[in-house]
Amino acid sequence: MAAEGKKGEPKKQITDEQRFKYIGFDVFPGKPKDLFKSEAEKTKYVDALKARREKGDIIRDECTLIEERVSGLDRIVLLAASVIIVATLFIPWFTMYNEKVEETTVAAEPMETMADSTMLASATDSLGNILSNDSAMMADATDSALAAGATAGDENTPAVNDPVHETTGEEVLHGYVAKKKITKEYSRIPGYSVFTSIGSLGDYIFSSGIILMLTGVLFFLQVLMTLLLPIYTLYGIFGMKGDADTKALALKKVLKFNWIPVILFILSMLLSFIGAEYGFDSQAVFSSLGDAYGPGVFLDSLSFGVTVSLGAFILLALKGVEI
Question: Residue 263's domain spans which residues?
Fold first, then answer.
């Protein structure tokens, strides 16, 4: 019964004052204070609102909606990046080298060896000491025999006077040391040489399989973008017409194209991991090319011109994302 009685009771309605307090309208507890300290301050504020209304300004002060999307400093940075990209065409993009081996013969000083007699004397010192004891013991036994034989020998054996030929037995050795001196002759190729040397370089590239052919085409497009995109970017910065928002949105679309050279470079690097065989004698052209094309040859052949241009392209593209 008690439960049924509770269900039958009407729900209590909250007042407007309680509702406003619940959702947070009551900022100050209790009675709110006056917004203005005096009537003069209130009058001044109301007059300022009326004056702004008469001008047609409906946006408050320091609103981010009225800030420029592309400031003057941003334009200067974009201009500098575009100029740097064009300038990279005149600095080395590729660096290759040839190894030259020079063999030099260095004659060493002649080295004199010990005489044979000297070597034998030093080697038989110990043997002579042993034999000297035995010869002393046999000396007494042979004295009488030698004395008798001497008389007979003097009568039967004529004296022979042979000349004595003395040889030193020395050998002179001459040592010669062959040394190899390896020098590298570098060839630095600027970016614009892709256009001027397309005939000679194309013969090597397009005779070496599909991988090198695609890599050559991608790099040609990258160099072409290095020339065209900065000009298009400068047009987007200074040549667009319309209000500030229209110009900013048009520039945003232009700057997005600066991702293209970055994508082309990444594709070229990925192709290098597949590798390829050369269709020409690579060692006769440049020693740095090695026997086959791969990522090592790709990275070793790049110079700082590619790095600088890619950094400037990324800067322009990121600004397009920011706008």
Answer: 67-97+188-322
